[in-house]
Specification:
By secondary structure, the protein is of the alpha/beta class. Helix content is about 30%, strand content about 15%. The chain starts with a strand and ends with a strand. Bound molecules: 1,4-dihydronicotinamide adenine dinucleotide and the ligand O=C(O)C(=O)[C@H](O)COP(=O)(O)O. Homodimer.
Length: about 375
Amino acid sequence: MKIYFDENMPFAHEFFSGFGELVPFSGREITAEQVADADVLLVRSITQVNAQLLANNNKLSFVGSATIGTDHIDLPYLAGRDINFHSAPGCNAVSVAEYVLSSLVVLSERYLLDLSSLTVGIVGGGNTGTRLSEKLAALGIRYKICDPLLEQKPQDLREFSSLTEVLDCDVISLHVPKVTTGDHPTYHLLNSENLANLRDEQILISACRGDVIDNQALLALKQLGHGLKLVLDVWEGEPKVLEPLIPYTELATAHIAGYSLEGKARGSEMLYQALCQHLNLKVTHKLTDFLPSASITFVELKQDFSQILLNQLVKMVYDVRRDDAIFRQQLSVEGFDSIRKSYPVRREFSAVTVSSSPNAYSDVPHHLGFNKMSN
Ligand SMILES: NC(=O)C1=CN([C@@H]2O[C@H](COP(=O)(O)OP(=O)(O)OC[C@H]3O[C@@H](n4cnc5c(N)ncnc54)[C@H](O)[C@@H]3O)[C@@H](O)[C@H]2O)C=CC1
Ligand SMILES: O=C(O)C(=O)[C@H](O)COP(=O)(O)O
């Protein structure tokens, strides 16, 4: 069996070498000729999987994408050819939520904001929006969620808000897929009209898909002197970036919000599990067998304040300013894809064990994500 896999997929050898011959490929450069003899194709978000890519292949039975988003996959085409498809829902939701928290901590320091006085408007209440809301709740930060699709589901008992209400919040964080059709499209969900209604002091964070915000409209707004504070991880037209927009951002990164080692590696693990199921084989590997221990495993703090803890976790585990600096310095030199390819190892809060005085953090639910050392 020949398994083609994106070279940017961690632990691919550990998970997949038992299945057959492994062939790595470069995500944006792969061709129909290259994958003509693939039995299994494992991609990430930059590979368009469609009739064109699979035109020369008549033996493919499984396609996996180690990502949450699936807008790069022609799902009806795969279904029409009876090719099994799996994505990795939720794999990097914690990573994106920690990116948002890190951004909030950085902006709260830059502008002397009290996070507990802010309300965060979450657009999209799926895996990432939910993880984010749990962490905000753990920190005592108010939030509202807009998700008209989940709102219709009787089993989802959360209270939902309208888009208008969420766009009125102090912080707006976008966590929707790219959808161009249907009743709830997200393409240019933020456009010249609703962007113009935002207030100077609001913060807008986008770590979902670039096309969800009309980037030209955003640039035009900023060029008029609007004070909206921008955190952009995703860009319309990646790997191209509307470069004049960059100086107007507080934080700008190269689509790496989901790039914690755990987030990417969970994607590989989920595809491994799906492939085992597809081939009717027993699951024998698990991610914890391969994940190295983090370089920071111990933080000792005495205060009993969840936000101080968050600030420490951000500084010691994931400070988004590192990725912002890399982006600003290296975009024009290395390019968007190279920044992503050489992304330094980043761990999640869960890789850290926090030791504290006996009663400290008793008020912080585990949702913030770190491990608490028992005293
Ligand atoms: N920057 C990054 O590194 C990453 C970006 N993403 C992007 O973020 C998106 C969201 O991720 P997840 O929450 O994990 O996906 P998910 O599929 O679990 O949740 C998406 C939610 O958005 C909701 N939704 C769809 N259309 C909507 C609309 N018009 N208004 C409000 N809500 C709407 C859906 O009902 C669903 O609950 C992914 O589709 C992907 O494109 C995901 C992971 C990493
Ligand atoms: O999971 C998703 O959806 C994402 O946006 C991923 O973070 C994209 O990462 P790559 O697949 O482009 O490496």
